[in-house]
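Protein details
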Amino acid sequence: MFKKLQKRWRAGLVTVVALSLGMGAVVYTQGASAATFPTATGTTKLTASKAVSGTFDGGLKRFVGSGALGGDSQDEGQDPLFTLADGATLKNVIIGSPAADGVHCLGSCTISNVWWENVGEDAATFKGGSSAKYTVTGGAAKGADDKVFQHNGGGTLTVSNFAVSDFGKLYRSCGNCKTQYKRSVVLKNVTATAPGGSLVGINSNFGDTATLSGITISGDSKKKIAICVTFKGNKTGAEPTKVATQTAATGGDGTNCKFSTSNITYK
């Protein structure tokens, strides 16, 4: 319990995010010592995963798990708060704690202006096929012991105008799923605030690619946050083997990790 409380007070984000909610521009200023998330307009408890097809606009209500969804641990196999059908959009939602396994995209999906106050198992998991297109735009996440975005299916995930703090990995292409794909991730205009482990983890042996631009890293004076880590993935469930780590100093390898030193800014 103390660890969870401690996580909520640790270093936050340094960014100003302007978002349109259909009611005019709303500006959220996030200071150097603590992230300022939008104020919830109410709280809804979910005892079972909420299925979304079409568009669900949460009106900036906070959604938390209860009963069977009452976990905020790293235990595998938890159910999500939201399950998005192919083509669905989830927007203007605050995901509180307990967050269970966040959001699952079963196909192509859009996640817009969604805020994770304290990531449970993962913030979002992407499960579509090889041609799926996933978009995460706006919003932020903090307090992820391990992963923020988990990519188990195929396709391409694009994350833009997003902020993350106090995290293990911002993005991970599944390293040991029974069915593997060539996966792609695009990060642009993303702010990451230490402590953090890595921005991207991908499987070079399956042809994964990561393209990064407009990345700002804050509070990491020793540059400990890895930019792009490549692994040798497998289909057996075994722990994947790390191949190489690309840093802001080295730049990307041009094949799997695609970024230059000018794409990374430290503050």
Notes: The first strand starts at residue 15 and ends at 20. Confidence is low (pLDDT under 50) at residues 1-35. The radius of gyration is 17 Å.
